[in-house]
Amino acid sequence: MAQKNAFYAQSGGVSAVINASACGVIETARGHAGTFGKVLAGRNGIIGALTEDLIDTSQESTAAIAALRHTPSGAFGSCRYKLKSLEESRREYERLLEVFQAHDIGYFFYNGGGDSADTCLKVSQLAGSLGAPIQAIHVPKTVDNDLPITDNCPGFGSVAKYIAVSVREASFDVRSMAATSTKVFVLEVMGRHAGWIAAAGGLASDKATELPIVILFPEVTFDQERFLAKVDSLVKKHGFCSVVVSEGVKGPDSKFLADQGSKDAFGHAQLGGVAPVVSGIVRDGLGLKYHWGVADYLQRAARHIASKTDVEQAYAVGKTAVELALAGRNSVMPTIVRESSYPYRWSMGEAHLSEVANVEKKMPRDFISPDGFGITATCREYLTPLIQGEDYPPYKDGLPDYVTLKNEPVEKKLPEFTI
Amino acid sequence: MAQKNAFYAQSGGVSAVINASACGVIETARGHAGTFGKVLAGRNGIIGALTEDLIDTSQESTAAIAALRHTPSGAFGSCRYKLKSLEESRREYERLLEVFQAHDIGYFFYNGGGDSADTCLKVSQLAGSLGAPIQAIHVPKTVDNDLPITDNCPGFGSVAKYIAVSVREASFDVRSMAATSTKVFVLEVMGRHAGWIAAAGGLASDKATELPIVILFPEVTFDQERFLAKVDSLVKKHGFCSVVVSEGVKGPDSKFLADQGSKDAFGHAQLGGVAPVVSGIVRDGLGLKYHWGVADYLQRAARHIASKTDVEQAYAVGKTAVELALAGRNSVMPTIVRESSYPYRWSMGEAHLSEVANVEKKMPRDFISPDGFGITATCREYLTPLIQGEDYPPYKDGLPDYVTLKNEPVEKKLPEFTI
Q1: Is the pLDDT of residue B1 over 80?
Q2: Which of A3, A168, A222, A396 would you label with A333, given CA atoms 20 to 30 Å apart?
Q3: Using CB atoms, which residue from A45, A203, A402 is nearest to B399?
Q4: At what angle do helices B308-326 and B18-30 cross, to 10 degrees?
Q5: ipTM of the complex model
């Protein structure tokens, strides 16, 4: 096999551990220099490939690449830019292949969620049909945890841990204050369509540390009367409660409880602000004192409290992606295979991208308790392993010592391309 | 000195380290059993003393008391209940003394902010004037960092660390997304009157890791035009910026930018929701994509990322309070004395409560940069030592193993008292 360069790009919302996957890709490719030349990264994701704005990662020191493992966010920049069907976006797919050819790229590692798996598959198909094959390997990443086949998606476990820890801490706080002050704390978490992240709030309470928590899932239509009855009964019994509300919760009219009316580049509605809406309902319906928080980016950037399991899996999918390329595989994605839950044992598998692209894994209905406000034992068994272990970053002057790469550009060889 | 029981209570908003002070008080008192009998705690703060709802901390194991050091919130419950002047609240002060006498209490350790220092002083004065002396020692605690004389207030350093870490992490996230998506991240932090907590957001950027951050302090009247110009210039230069906004920021009309209109038991306006207001200003004024978060209770409960310095100081003020009592002192508060900033060296001092009660320490004007949007080198020198070191709690099943005490009640001896 002749030596070829590899292209790596980050796609969509970033996470606490997507750079750990980048670290896995680059370190493993560096270890097989006979097969892989340079790893070139797309500046700001796939846009970097389209505009031939490539980063030469070979300019980064071994220490800088190693530091990616403990650095949150997307070190090369990410983007929300979706390529459509081969017919609709043919000009862009062809441009990608042109750039890959100009820079002697034979491997395409694309680190993202369902949309990028689809892009990855199409690049591979088009390259094959044009007789200029590219081995396209998708590296799974999404805090939404909605990719099929794989046990979970790197990025999710760390958000889950952050939410579980935060809900436990805030619940202890409210419990202290409830006699004369705040009785209900409402925390808004991410999750447009699926309640995976909200479900993690349920882990804050366990047998050793019981805490009253109400979860509002996007899968369960919001019923104001039943919600208020639930909060009322918990506050009467325990003196307080915490509410974890997913940004994607909808009312009986099928509208988001909080809809800002704007949309992102993928056409998804951009949400935010359901916590104050729910708090207002508590105030008006029960007259209870409340506080509310919105975790927003803090939850997915919180590398300081990342799950060790998640970091290890994020690195492993990057490493395995390169190993799959070495083994001659194409149009595949490394998957995490759960072998047992208690204790958690996992290994790496693979899935063909045709099984992954545009398939959304929903949360099983039996993960949600019959009353719709909590998680079941089955859900707990699924989630608990994913938050195991701490993987603290190094600190300097009291702050995490995260790396910012040099991101040296590769010289351009092609005419300009406008997107 | 005859053996007497001690009374300990937590007051006002709780913190990540107020239980470390409780730990310092109880462990130190247990070590001097000749002087101190039992430490009785007020259930839900001073309300527990008024209603004779006392907790017998001698029922708690050595391990449980030691675990307070790494457990956030108020283990015995806190309250927002302010005693007024001796004239206005004489009935309550007399009741306190009655309860103290009935339970053979000779020492009053009150763990809180400015209001509780005032209560502490008045209890001591009244007890003295009635010939039934009580040694009243105030144990400083407030995330607002607004007590005078002491270098800082336990609780603040950990909030500062949480905010600095979170702003750094969220800024890395926005930086990754800015090419096609979010360019401005707005984080709302606590601080009604003083910008101490907001200032800590400025630590997220330092020489090794430069990040564009705009701070909105309550000390600086919000000027929409200047704010938009600042954000615009940072986004043009860096592609993105983070905004840290204090809940207490006021507009030119002297009204809070976000005023929910309700008030807490101390008569303070209850705020929340300035982040979406500021985000809307960015959207309407500059047309930039934004995200916003509200840290709320997460910031003050975040024991998982507490400052080691803060934990040590919180323990030290509890321990020193008991040592001051042993030395026969009355109506005093242990203070933290800064001996040098780089490296940070501190020792314990003391202040008379007449110098502490109802005196609010403001942030010096020379801590805020001339343009009003950042911190100065002087402020950095003050803040940096306070976030040094990590003091991770133990974990179990992926979550911090925080203690919940048994909180066994002491048998009542007096007629009921209604508050």
Answers
A1: no
A2: A3
A3: A203
A4: 40
A5: 0.96
